[in-house]
Each structure stands twice: as C-alpha cells, then as structure tokens.
Amino acid sequence: MDAALSPELEAYRAAARAFIAQHAPTYGRAARKGLSEAQDLALGRAWLALKAANGYACITLPREYGGGGGTDLEQILFVQEEAPHGFPTEYFAIGLGMPIPMLLRYGTEEQKQALVPPAIRGETIWCQIFSEPGGGSDVGAFRFKARRDGDDWILSGQKVWISWAQHSDYGVIVTRTDTTVAKHKGLTYFFVDLKAPGVTVRPIRQLHGRTDFNEIFFDEVRVPDSCRLGPVGEGFRLAVETLMIERYTAAADETGGGPPLEAFTALAKAATHRGRPAIEDGRVRGGIARAHAVQQALIAIHQKSLLDLAAGRTPGPEGSIHKYAGARERKRLAVLALDLLGPAGVAFDPAAGMKEDFAMSWMDVATLRIAGGSDEMLLNTVAEKILGLPQDYRPDKGVPFDQVPVG
Ligand SMILES: Cc1cc2nc3c(=O)[nH]c(=O)nc-3n(C[C@H](O)[C@H](O)[C@H](O)COP(=O)(O)OP(=O)(O)OC[C@H]3O[C@@H](n4cnc5c(N)ncnc54)[C@H](O)[C@@H]3O)c2cc1C
Predict the structure, then answer these.
(1) Which of 111, 162, 289, 349 falls 20 to 30 Å from 199 in CA-CA distance?
(2) Ligand 1 in contact with 376 (CB < 6 A)?
(3) Ligand 1: distance of its center to the CA of 179 in Å?
C-alpha cells in the first residue's frame, strides 16, 4: 500500500483499476495497433466519453460541467493506473489539463456551460497557443498582436509548436495588446475559435514521422471581447497560471515517459556483447543500477507531492527536478538500449508508443527536454526556488516593450 493513501483512496484505486482492466482490450494499446490517426482519434473520443459517463474524465473538475468532482489524489491515482495501458488520451491531455481549467476559472457561466462539457466528453479539442518563432521560454517577450476594434479584437501573427492544433476546435492564446508598457504588463489572454476565417494550421513533421505539433497563422482574425479571459493587460499572470498547472501535471512518471526499466533489463538479458550476455557487462549493469537509483528518487519526490496534497498543501517546485531528471535518465537508457540493439535499433516502429520502443523513445525524448519548460529553465527554477540563488540580471525589467533593444 502507498504511504500516502487512506483506505478510501486504496478502494478508489481498486475500482479504477477494475474499470481500466475491463476496457483496456477495447481502447488500449493492442486495440490501437494499425489504426490511422483519424481512427485512433475516434477511439480516443469514445474512451473519453466512456470515462466521462463514469466520472473518470477530468476527475478534479466540478460535476456540474461534466467533471468527476473528485480530488487531485484521485486524479493522480487514476492516471497512474491508466497510463501503462497506452489508451489514446494524448490528443486531449493538454486541452483538458490547462485550457479547460483556465476557462472554468475565468470564463462566463454561459461559456463554461456551453464549452466545457463537450470538451470533457471528447467531442471538442482545445490547445494551448503560447510559443512564438521568437521564443517560448520568455512569455513576457511575446510579440503576437491583438488590437481593439469596437467590441472585437483583431489578432495577427504566428505561433508555433502548438500540440494537437491540427485536431483542435479552440485554443487559449497570449497576445500583445500594448507595446508602450513594460513587457509583462502589455499582454492579454483570450480563447479563440480555430475554425474562424483567417486561421491557418500547418502540421510540423518530426524526426520519427509523427506530427504532434503545428504552426498557426492568424491573418486579421476577428475575436469578440467576450472571448477575453481575465482583464486587459493581465495576460502574463494568466499565462504563468496556466504553465504552473502544466509543470505540476507533468511530474508523475519516473521513467520520464519512456519504456520501463524492466524492458531494458529484458533487452540486456537477450542481447549479447563481445560474445557474452550483455547483462554481464559492467557498463550495462551500471546503467541499470543508475536508472534504478534515479527512478527511486523520482518516486520519492512524487510521494512527497502526494503527501503534500493529502495534507492540503500545494506541491512545490520539486516538479521541475522530476521532469529534468526523468527526461535525462530516459535519454541515457535509450542510448544504452540502442547500443545493445545495434543495427536492429534503426528499424524502429513508427506506430509504437514511447513506452514500447527504445528508438522512438530516443527520438522523442529531445522534445520532452524542451516542452513544458526546457532543461535550462527548470534548472533556473531549482536555482531560484529551491537553492535560493539570486535571479538572473534582467536588463529589460520595467522598460516599455517598444523600447527594449532587439538584436
Ligand atoms: C513536444 C513539444 C510540444 C509543445 N507544445 C506546445 C504547445 O502545445 N503550446 C505552446 O505554446 N508551445 C508548445 N511547445 C513549445 C515549447 O513551449 C517551447 O519550445 C519552449 O517554451 C521553449 O521555447 P523555444 O523552443 O522557443 O526556446 P527559447 O525560449 O528560444 O530558448 C532557446 C534556448 O535558450 C534557453 N534559454 C532561454 N531562456 C533562458 C534563460 N532565462 N536561462 C537559461 N537558458 C535559457 C532554452 O532553454 C533553450 O535551450 C512545445 C514544444 C515541444 C518540444
């Protein structure tokens, strides 16, 4: 039993496990094999609808909008049980994880009633439209423009790296509405209809052949002021609030989203190195020991987050350590696995999930070290929030955005 869990939570976990086991053959990894992306997405929508009907979709969101009305701990337990089965949840994870909670916090009652339940049932998809060609780490430096026109705003510019925008109906977006004030003060946050005239979504093909993200062009797109979330000029605050939800939800899988350590150990037992079983090689054994030690530390960090939640506290910046160390270790293990596989490692399966195929995991892990906060930004968080080191020198602090020198 988990140190942090009460008997009620253990009962919740057992019920969730039974529900998932019942439906894994229909919606899980094996059912997805050989499907086109459109078929896979349809399967994902059906799985989400089934979860919503049983109170397992968006467990922490209120029942009146289609959520489960449960706790953070219940949500974490459900995801822990669900993740190993490879259900088609990726298309919805960002939208339900960040934009929908933001709509619930800042939308009108009418917007929430109309837009949240269909998203929770998988009928609509939302994306998070923040990053720009000029950079994604420094939200305060965004240049994408919105200008007021009567009761509307006109949005123009380019955003990039937007996950699942090719399937999305709506997105939350950060725009610059005032260039004459300091950079953090001139931003405003909206939600936008991605089917509106003037919006062009172009998928970007990745190294492994998949297209998980997109660039989006807005050509004078008209957005009603009623789609503004939060006050004019408060977009930076809302963007940071959104990203804080992201950092926290990202930190749970001790493998960093890659194959489990047992898969590597099995590979090392089956492979040979200099005519001997690879598992006998010191470098391979050292790699296994190191990965085990790091994963145990990540599990401990996660346990601490669970204990914080159980005690009514918000988990701290240790999520940054979890993501940083998890992604680096996943990469190390994938490199070692590819060394053992030799030429066979090149013959990767593009339809395989990241938890099944070491070559896919290796190709994809580079993106994990950027998405949701790059390694360097996570180290900044550790330096400032955990070690108490001083912030970087910020020469643009307080300077009007249109007077910040650009190179
Ligand atoms: C798989 C994936 C999915 C994504 N999905 C989305 C999405 O759905 N929506 C969205 O808006 N964006 C998304 N992104 C974009 C992501 O948010 C950005 O890539 C990220 O914020 C970094 O921005 P950048 O790539 O522009 O790098 P930049 O911000 O230009 O940074 C370049 C380099 O400089 C380093 N750096 C920057 N500032 C500092 C600093 N202060 N101190 C030290 N080093 C620094 C960075 O670590 C990086 O190595 C996704 C990215 C990936 C890889």
Answers:
(1) 111
(2) yes
(3) 23
CB-side neighbour CA atoms (13 Å) of 307: 8
Q: Could you tell me if the CB of 133 is within 6 A of ligand 1? A: no
22 C-alpha to ligand 1 centroid (Å): 39
Q: Which atom of ligand 1 is nearest to the CA of 136?
A: 23
Q: Is 158 in the pocket of ligand 1 (CB under 6 A)?
A: no
Q: Is 10 touching ligand 1 by the criterion CB < 6 Å?
A: no
Tokens of 55: 């109170």
**R_g of the chain computed on alpha carbons:** 22
Closest CA to 348 of 338, 336, 360: 360
pLDDT tens across 366-399, in order?
A: 999 999 889 999 999 999 999 999 998 888 888 9
Whether 342 is in the pocket of ligand 1, judged by its Cβ within 6 Å, is: no
Pocket test for ligand 1, best of 142, 144, 161 (most atoms within 8 A of CB): 161
Whole-number Å distance, alpha carbon 371 to ligand 1 midpoint, is: 6
Q: Which residues of the chain have pLDDT under 50?
A: 1, 250
Q: Are 333 and 291 in contact (CB under 8 A)?
A: yes
pLDDT for 247 equals 56
Ligand 1 atom 30: residue of nearest CA: 135
Residues 6+ away with beta carbon under 8 Å from 38: none
The residues, any chain, with a CB within 8 Å of residue 381's CB and separated by 6 or more, are 317, 320, 373
The tokens for 4 are 């942090």
Structure tokens at 22: 């019942």
Instruction: Determine if ligand 1 sits within 6 Å of the CB of residue 272.
Output: no
Residue-wise pLDDT tens digits, 24-64? 999 999 999 999 999 999 999 999 999 999 999 999 999 99
Q: What is the pLDDT of residue 239?
A: 96
Whether the CB of 394 sits within 6 Å of ligand 1? no
